[in-house]
Design brief:
Layout (H helix, E strand, L loop, with lengths): L1 H17 L23 E6 L4 H17 L4 E6 L5 H6 L2 E6 L3 E6 L4
Parallel strand pairs: 1-2
Antiparallel strand pairs: 2-4, 3-4
């Protein structure tokens, strides 16, 4: 994973050099099940990161976070092999679908 993380860091550095204005984008190299979601609006990008035994607990953790602290959250899922799990385990709804990615937005359940 370290090679992939270094590559993503390089992409982020290039993005910062070409961005206009402040840009708060960063990569993290850590256990996804321990990541504490920021309590601010989020855009999350996943490139088919996990198989279902890990993906489902990550999604459930995300769901608990947005239920406890409602906020605007966009989830972009590239190479969406397990896309059905998102709507099965969260209140995220697909707002855009293409061959290569799906985009979801959190909807607070009533």
């Amino acid at each position: 994973f370290n090679g992939a993380f270094r590559a993503s860091d390089a992409h982020i550095d290039r993005l910062r050099r070409h961005a206009v204005g402040a840009l708060e984008v960063f990569g993290l190299n850590l256990d996804a099940l321990e990541f504490e979601m920021p309590l601010t609006p989020l855009v999350l990008y996943f490139f088919n990161p996990f198989r279902p035994p890990v993906w489902v607990p990550v999604l459930q953790r995300l769901q608990r976070s947005v239920e406890a602290h409602a906020r605007d959250v966009i989830l972009i899922y590239e190479n969406p092999c397990h896309a059905s799990l998102i709507e099965q385990h969260t209140a995220f709804r697909c707002i855009e679908k293409s061959t290569y990615h799906h985009t979801y937005r959190f909807e607070l359940r009533s």
